[in-house]
Amino acid sequence: MTTKDEAAMAQYLSFQVAGESYAVGVLQAREIIEYSTLTRVPHAPAAVRGVINLRGSVVPVVDLAVKFGLPASEIGRRTCVVIVECTIEGEAMVMGVMADAVNQVLDLGPTDIEPAPSFGTRVRTEYLKGMGKLEQGFVLLLDMDKLLSGQEAAVGQVTATAGSAVEV
Description:
The protein has 168 residues and is mostly beta strands. The protein has helices spanning 4-8, 64-67, 144-147, 151-162; strands at 10-17, 20-25, 29-34, 48-54, 57-62, 80-88, 91-99, 101-108, 113-114, 128-134, 137-142. It has one domain (4-163): CATH 2.40.50.180. A hairpin with a 2-residue loop joins strand 6 (80-88) and strand 7 (91-99). The relative contact order is 0.23.
């Protein structure tokens, strides 16, 4: 028998970008893959590091550090790509986001989530669903639908329609 609090718990995949902890709902995170060579896309926004071939589909990979106005992420041995599914303009899209490291899956209840702060983060508040309270500190809960709805999504739409025009 589950209690009301257990039923209200939500799971989030937490990861590191530029020394900060972020998380995305596990229902949006499809998989985690090892970082490998990306194919650059000419005239792509700076935050788009390139595209990968994910089982025959072209998937843009976004460097969240650049998206947040920081220097580009350094590639390390724990660098990976979190494949997320987001809804942009009513259409489901698959995109990748670079992470310096993936941490763990977090169980957060309604009392563990605070509203997004209006100051003190590198992330614009409209990109946040809130802040998850942890035993030691906080994790920023990202709204991937809003975060990836800009020019990055356009790269995904263009490369998907171009099909074989983009070599991966």
